[in-house]
Design a protein that fits this description.
Chains A, B: InterPro entries: GntR_C, TF_FadR/GntR_C, Tscrpt_reg_HTH_GntR, WH-like_DNA-bd_sf, WH_DNA-bd_sf. Chains A, B: This is DNA-binding transcriptional regulator, GntR family. Chains A, B: One of its GO terms (molecular function) is DNA-binding transcription factor activity. The structure is a homodimer. By secondary structure, chain A is mainly α. The first copy, chain A, is built from ten helices and two strands. Chain A has helices at about 5-20, 30-40, 45-55, 75-95, 100-120, 125-140, 145-155, 160-165, 170-190, 195-205, and strands at about 60, 65-70. Chain A has a two-stranded antiparallel sheet. In chain A, α1 crosses α3 (about 45-55), α5 runs antiparallel to α6 (about 125-140) and α9 (about 170-190) runs antiparallel to α10. The longest helix of chain A has 22 residues, at about 75-95. The radius of gyration of chain A is 19 Å and the shape is globular.
């Protein structure tokens, strides 16, 4: 355990990781006692981590019933897509003023790596690289609250489960998604703030794709 | 105390109200022991409420130092304005498809009430009515997550303190703001989704006004 990390943060990471990797499933009740035993800690930091996870949207807190993993149905996924679309659109819009040629070159490298990962069906690698790709421009938007909010929403919503989905057309879907990443780079190079904002909002986070992230 | 409200929620309301009304001030340390005594409750629900308030952005949790009221400087206020601008713009964009003539009439009544409140310098009343005005269209955007997020951001950020500010030009500022409310109603009547979205984002939540909400 990281010695600078609070017990609450340790429990937070422990539970959120279980949710993200799918070993805690939608609607599953959180067994507080079991977590206390597994981590050999008292109830207080566990309760604190559960409150934070519920506030962020990972869990539902049902009065007198305790905490459950919040399911993300297709309708809920559409709601998140719309929100992340406008927020990431804003981040990109602002990032145009700060992005350097070095960062654009880095995004181009990531684009090639993502393409290779899709080709050899290493979807787990693709997922990790696309996270880095998006973070590259989000992190330079010069708005700390926006960065924090985008990360929080993505954490509570996107649960890596699609990687494990046996989808016939996952290859095709990711190829299209990666062609969109290429367009995003192009719009950064053109410094076309307006088009970049609407492209990310209306095309890249098109709610048509939300069904792939509902679980 | 509401018998259906958890102790944690009770503490949450108690502290957030103190922050909003200004009796807990920016950078002030939260005295956990004092709250336990004032509400005659144990430390656990107080800790839980503090974690939620920190997750939502009301408080800062400084390791080994405890919780403090987060100050909102002008730069931070600008960050919030940009975020709320795009989110409320999205809400209004979507609400155009659902708004009824009854709701538009209601917004027109609120507009008149706000104008009267400004004229007789009842800025506290103005503040309450403008909240109802914005909620009228936000609540019909058909996106629960968006409604939840907008409310959370506004709660943690806008702290009614401007009402108490001795500002020479508060009258003029609010007159302009209310003329913007009039324009918002007009764009709803015209069902001009695109213009409504950009008007709310770029004019009504213009970051030039953020200085009035920094504390």
């Amino acid at each position: 355990m990281n010695q600078y990390m609070s017990l609450k943060d340790h429990v937070y990471n422990y539970i959120s990781q279980k949710i993200n990797e799918g070993s805690l499933t939608p609607n599953e009740k959180i067994n507080e006692q079991l977590i206390c035993e597994e981590l050999n800690i008292s109830r207080t930091p566990v309760r604190e981590a559960l409150i934070q996870l519920a506030t962020e949207g990972y869990l539902e807190n049902i009065p007198r019933k305790g905490f459950r993993v919040r399911p993300i149905d297709e309708n809920k996924a559409i709601e998140f897509y719309m929100i992340i679309g406008v927020l990431e659109g804003l981040a990109a819009y602002n990032a145009v003023d700060y992005i350097t040629s070095k960062e654009i070159s880095y995004m181009k490298e990531l684009l090639i790596s993502m393409d290779k990962a899709i080709d050899i069906e290493l979807y787990d690698d693709y997922y990790k690289i696309q996270t880095v790709f998006h973070n590259t421009f989000v992190n330079i938007c010069n708005n700390e609250e926006l960065i924090r909010l985008i990360n929080q929403l993505k954490r509570s919503f996107i649960r890596q489960t699609y990687i494990n989905k046996e989808s016939d057309n996952l290859y095709e879907i990711l190829k299209v998604t990666n062609s969109e990443h290429k367009e995003i780079i192009k719009l950064f190079e053109l410094k076309d703030k307006e088009k970049l904002r609407s492209y990310i909002r209306d095309v890249h986070w098109n709610t048509q794709n939300a069904k792939f992230d509902s679980i």
